Amino acid sequence: MRNFIITVLLFLLPTLAYPQAKKPTIMVVPSDNWCIQNNFTMTYDNQGKTMTVPDYRAALQNNSDVLLAISKINEMMAERGFTLKNLESCLKTLDNQSAEEAMLSSSTGAEISESPIDKLKKVAKADIIIQLSWTVNDIGPKHSLTFNLQGLDAYTDKQIAGSSGTSSPSYTSELAILIEEAVLSHIDQFNSQLQAHFDDMFENGREITLRVKVWDDFEGEYGLETDYDGTELGFIIEDWVADNTVNGRFNTTDATENMMLFEQVRIPLEQEINGRTRAVDARRWASGLQKFLRDNYDIDSKLMMQGLGQAQIIIGGK
Fold first, then answer.
1. What is the mean pLDDT of residues 261-266?
2. Which of 111, 144, 154, 190 could tie 163 with a disulfide, CB 3.0–4.6 Å?
3. Whole-angstrom Cα distance, residue 77 to residue 188?
4. Percent share of the chain, pLDDT over 90
5. Cα separation values, 53 from 45, 99, 144, 150, 251, Å
6. From the CB of residue 15, how many other CB atoms can be counted at a distance below 10 Å?
7. Phi, then psi, of 153 in degrees rounded to 5
8. Which DSSP state fits 248?
9. Rounded percentage of the chain residues whose pLDDT exceeds 70
10. Strands, DSSP E only, in 72-223?
11. pTM of the entire structure?
């Protein structure tokens, strides 16, 4: 009996420990394809170029199936211990931030724009965006549902999980039931892919992109090739990035006198700041480089963000 109890406890131990694992924060949205097929799109100006993106607000206000579909996926994910951000609530929060402008300008006239989707991601601060699309198939008196789920890293927009399938034909026409029947046999494998990606981020850092540029009026005669105590500014910046990434993981994709591009930059998810553990995003992390340049080399810079995962520092002034 004693050996039997020990065996049972050893079997249950992983199951008991699993819910304690830190899980990613998720937001479910209708996919780009679904929004385009159903004419829920909007346009915005991106530095003179007209861009078309999904209009989630219009979809939620004009199609009750969207609310129902998102609610059902949210429910299924929450039952499995994931933290969900509600799309409708995030859109309302975004509306309340009326002071936020579409364009951010520097005192010297440089501009950078953000898409409405980038702004929504900033408000949601989700780790993963799940794009959902579905089609109801009518087969005589029976109905089935074909679905597609795509898990996207909110910082890089890279797909990190995917699942699709079709439910068995049924006499019910209720969307929530069709979605549950179609998704149920796939969702645990899909969640395992999400969790594996998040575990990798927790261990090896979140991936972002960092761009460094130079204002025309920067006092350094040779831009990023200007020497400071015998070392070029570009190498000083590169050394800081190496010292402040998880296990020094990053790629210097390009480096010239006027710009540097760092990709696959792995930053920690959390950091001790003033005795408290705080979440770290690209903006907070890049502000460390700003402070380093100001405190050690008396170099001012401007920090601008595009979405959650792209930071840009322009050296030589605010």
1. 97
2. 190
3. 9
4. 68
5. 11, 22, 29, 17, 30
6. 8
7. -65, 120
8. G
9. 88
10. 83-85, 103-105, 111-113, 128-139, 142-153, 159-166, 206-214
11. 0.81
Q: b/e map of 281-316 (b: 16 or more CB within 10 Å)?
A: bbeebbeebbebbeeeeebbbbebbbbbbbbbbbbb
80, 187 contact by CB (below 8 A): yes
How many beta carbons lie within 10 A of that of residue 75, not counting itself? 13
Task: Give the up-direction half-sphere exposure of residue 253: CA atoms within 13 A in the CB hemisphere.
Answer: 9
Q: Tokens in use for 262? A: 């760092």
Q: What is the pLDDT of residue 1?
A: 52
pLDDT exceeds 70 at position 108: no
How far is Cα 143 from Cα 141, in angstroms, rounded to an integer?
7
| DSSP 3-state of 276 | strand
Quick check: 54 and 29 in contact, CB under 8 A?
yes
The pLDDT assigned to 99 comes to: 46
Q: What tens digit of pLDDT does each residue of 57-82 get?
A: 999 999 999 999 999 999 999 999 99
Structure tokens at 265: 């930059």
| Residue type at 239 in one-letter notation | D
